[in-house]
Amino acid sequence: MHNKTISELALGLRVGDFTSVELTRSYLDRVSKFNNELNSYITVCEESALQSAEIADRRIRAGEAEPLLGIPIAHKDIFCTEGVKTSCGSKMLDNFIAPYDAHVVSLFNQSGAVMLGKTNMDEFAMGSSNENSYYGPVHNPWKLEAVPGGSSGGSASAVAAGLCVAATGTDTGGSIRQPAAFCGITGLKPTYGRVSRYGMIAFASSLDQGGPMTRTAEDAAAMLQVMAGFDPRDSTSADQPVPDYMAGLGNDLSGLRIGVPKEYLGGGLDADIEASIQLALAEYTRMGAELVEISLPNAQLGVPTYYVVAPAECSSNLSRFDGVRYGYRCSDPKDLEDLYKRSRGEGFGPEVKRRIMIGTYALSAGYYDAYYLKAQKIRHLISDDFREAFKKVDVIMGPTAPSTAFGIGEKSDDPVTMYLSDIYTIAVNLAGLPGMSIPVKPVGGMPVGLQLIGNYFEEAKLLNVAHRLQQETGWHSATPAGFE
Asked: Is pLDDT of 376 > 90?
């Protein structure tokens, strides 16, 4: 059952081929069997999952037919879940039991989805490889010695290995799309503000956005239908109507204008990955789309801009973790200053400390104008580039990542090289645009992602464009050996 889509499983539940309890138990069995080698989950909620499945079965027998009713999913451990540990992959929150549900979690609970557990992640969502977790690295099911990408690597690994039907993730600079590319699944980062950030522990508040991680674009549409919408508790939530994402799937692509940025092909991109991207673009032209070369001249400034803006915001957001109110507290502090220093020094990992220090420096007197203010000006230029491009094209396409998944430990001693893993994804967050990654032809037996970028609030268009490719090819249906 673990290779079926959400719609296939929903149909099976409605006609009585199996119950939600049986379905949930089958996934829990897979988690028990494979999680030790993948380390995808931090917390497994077996008892509550089976209770939720029983409730879903009663609702199904009563005639309810919600698309996600009785479907087992997982949440990235950055979303607060009432009564369940919400660690953010950090020692700092290893003892934190959330007293409330994030808005996204509440929506899935109302839909009848079954939460199997909380997935592993880079600490406070800071990383591109899922090696920064307090709970150890996550492994890529396609190659256990390789990283799954980050920071939503636990969700990507779990979906790819069939340890849940779908999962939530968050994307600050590519943290849904890059792990989706590395693990051969579909990952969607919605427009900034489309999904509420209430109860989603903040890293960089002007960049963070929650989204779905699934096997198919159709499943991503079903997940986004539940996640999207206005939330008055989130001041950055967009009060925009939510379309029927499923209704537009399968629309004809004739006349679709696909922008291909000249800055995205060649250069540091692996030649085999470029060939795989070109093959996907050729499929789109066969379906009636038109390729248009465009330029995003400030795209190369995305990485340095991001690594000023994001650390500055994280420096501010993470100041709340001080050992006083909740979270990790050092033992036997001498005084208040010692409590602050040792609680933060012992509770945060190296990457989080690095970004806090960078951000604090960028915001300090004498450097604010030189770094932070300048980065915000460049951010505006990057957004302008996209606005100009979307006057000529309907969607932009290119690679999600410059390489396939690299080995665990391969880049951990070189932060700058690690940061370049997100070179194609970061600009989308700086501009607040929707973007997604879908699998294309593998390279050397490892997954490759095609990135699709849309205009503001045009997730429905992206989902249809992705779905059409998945209808025509079987690239998205491949499963890693040993996890069939």
From this structure: yes
